[in-house]
Amino acid sequence: MRAVTFQAPEEVRIEEVPEPELGAPGDAIVRVDASGICGSDLHIYRGRFPVEPGFTIGHEFVGTVLAAGPEVTRVAVGDRVLGTFHVACATCSSCLRGEYHRCRNGRTFGHGSSLGSLQGAQAEQLVCPWANVNLRRVPEGMSDDVALFAGDVMGTGYHAVANAGMTEGDTVAILGLGPVGLCAVQAALAGGAARVFAVDTVAERLAIAESFGALPLHLTESDVKGEIRAATEGGVDVAVDAVGDPAPLALAISLARDAGTVSGVGAYAGRGEVPLGLAWLKCLDLKLGLANVIAHVDRVLGLLESGRLDPTPLVSSHMKLDEAPEAYRIFARREALKIVLSP
Ligand SMILES: [Zn+2]
Ligand SMILES: [Zn+2]
After folding, report:
1. Quick one: how far is CA 291 from the chain centroid?
2. What b/e readout covers 133-150, taking b as 16+ CB neighbours within 10 angstroms?
3. C-alpha–C-alpha distance, residues 44 and 111, integer Å
4. Do residues 96 and 109 lie in contact, with contact meaning Cβ atoms separated by under 8 Å?
5. What is the full DSSP assignment across 81-96?
6. From CA 61, how far away is CA 84, in angstroms rounded?
7. Which residues is 131 bridged to in the sheet?
8. Where are the domains of the chain?
9. How far apart are CA 219 and CA 234, in angstroms?
10. In angstroms, what is the span from residue 24 Cα to ligand 2's centroid?
């Protein structure tokens, strides 16, 4: 079968690779009908996240179950399913606490041996371990484009506000309007936020956030701090860093009200400087880390089904799996928010 494999920084290739086979009794084989290219695939593409040459990449998918092991009961052959970007076992101590994102046996699709050697989703087929936990049936009538978001990007946007304990009537600031930030805008509004301030430097992305109902603020051309402080009497209840860098985290700390919450869902790496003294003085709750998408996926699917969450405007192009090298070049130039590949 054909698959998109990492070769070297800035080089992915379409290669012929062996079809996946059922191994453990909880495995399912999925024929991939659509897969997404994600911001975290770019870390691999640029050589910042180590993946072995020849490894299949990609971790967002919708497809059809082709085969299932004897322990798979929640989905069946022929079902249209979506997957979560990583898999969890549901029986380790982390999973038993509901912390699937920290599963002690967890593996992430398409990230090479450092995250569990699980071949990726930008391929004609994949094998999904513990399919009872990590696959869901796609609700009747839901498009591939929409379902594709449930197990990763929308799940992460949802986590950004849900994990922050956002409640109805809260004020929220979202810093960074990539797909995750824009999904966080929708999740905050769907959760009943009174006001959502959306901050970025890209006019197009600010316009999308505004069309969702947020108040757009240009990071450099407007007085973000001044405007938010004036509108909220001292800061927002929840400030989300959807970028994953020290600068937006520092801004989030300064935008949150006293005893408010800062939620960081971007992938931080290494060290960085943030105003810890200010965070201490303001008694902030800091919530950082990978999203617990498996814990959220059923709620997110329900909100997608009802239309209260709708990522359709984020899908900027559809391309063929064979066009993946060009799709990655386009995505790396930031000319697309979300590219969906189909075989
Ligand atoms: Zn992703
Ligand atoms: Zn586990």
Report:
1. 8
2. bbbbbbbeebebbbbbbb
3. 8
4. no
5. EEE-SEE--SSSHHHH
6. 8
7. none
8. 2-149+311-342, 154-288
9. 18
10. 15
Neighbours of ion ligand 2 (CB under 5 A): 88-89, 92, 95, 103
Q: Residue 11: what are its φ and ψ, rounded to 5°?
A: -135, 110
- The answer to whether residue 270 scores a pLDDT higher than 90 is no
CA angle 129, 32, 89 (to 5 degrees): 15
Q: In the structure encoding, which two tokens stand for residue 59, read together?
A: 């971790």
Quote the pLDDT of residue 233: 87
Cα separations in angstroms, 170 against 253, 255, 288, 295, 328:
17, 14, 20, 23, 38
Task: State the distance from the centre of ligand 2 to the C-alpha of 84, rounded, in angstroms.
Answer: 14
Under CATH, which architecture does the 154-288 domain have?
A: 3-Layer(aba) Sandwich (3.40)
Amino acid 269: pLDDT = 84
Cα of 58 to ligand 1 centre, how many Å? 8
CA 49 to centroid of ligand 1, rounded, Å? 14
> In angstroms, rounded to a whole number, what is the distance separating the alpha carbons of residues 307 and 143?
12
Q: Say if 2-149+311-342 and 154-288 have the same CATH topology.
A: no
The rounded distance, in Å, linking the Cα atoms of 292 and 163 is 9
In the predicted structure, residue 51 carries a pLDDT above the cut 90: yes
Cα 153 to averaged position of ligand 1 atoms, centre (Å): 6
Question: pTM (2 decimals)?
Answer: 0.96
Kindly identify the ligand whose nearest atom is closest to the C-alpha of 111. 1
What are φ and ψ of residue 306, in 5° steps? Answer: -75, -15
The whole-angstrom distance between residue 92's C-alpha and the CA centroid of its chain comes to 23
- Distance, CA 86 to ligand 2 centroid (Å)? 11
CATH number of the 2-149+311-342 domain: 3.90.180.10
Please tell me the distance between residue 134's alpha carbon and the centre of ligand 2 in angstroms: 11
Gyration radius from the chain CA atoms: 20
Q: Could you tell me the distance, in angstroms and rounded to a whole number, from the CA of residue 81 to the centre of ligand 2?
A: 21
What tokens does 154 get? Answer: 């929308």
Ligand nearest to the CA of 104: 2
- The tens digit of pLDDT for each residue in 62-80 reads 999 999 999 999 999 999 9
Q: Which ligand is nearest to the CA of 292?
A: 2
**Between 249 and 270, residue with greater pLDDT:** 249
